[in-house]
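re: ur question from earlier - yeah i can do the single chain one, its not a big deal. heres the input i used so u can compare w yours
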Amino acid sequence: MVTFLYILYSLICIFLILVVLLQAGRGGMGSAFGGSSQTVFGGSGAGNFLTKLTVISAALFMLLSATLTYVSSSGEKSLEKASEKVRMREEARTAASKKGAGAKAPPPAEQSTPEGTTTGTPAPAPAPVVPVEGAAKPAVPAAPSPAPAQP
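and the output i got, formated as tokens:
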């Protein structure tokens, strides 16, 4: 659906450019190149015909621009929800790790499918990080990632 709208949008853009370029100028450089192009469309009807085509194609252009903007921005809401879930999971993990080794970890979250529905099976718990003896320790501890800005 979105691909069809983008193709239609491109065709309307090209058509709008051509219709605007076909219109006769109001004097200026157009008369220097030899006469008027209005005789191709009829004596006086060219102005009305091209003006109507321009208005229709401009209206379609604006309508499709607004539609494509809405369609592309509606996907960001689902990304915001997913990032909020990840942030909540990370906060739960850090809270559990601060309580100590004896504290009970939070229950695992359910796995979700791309459509946003849950599968009903719990997500596998992450493997605990065990330091290896003799391994080099980082010189600077990693800084926690900043939380996304709330509007």
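The first strand starts at residue 110 and ends at 112. not sure if urs matches, ping me
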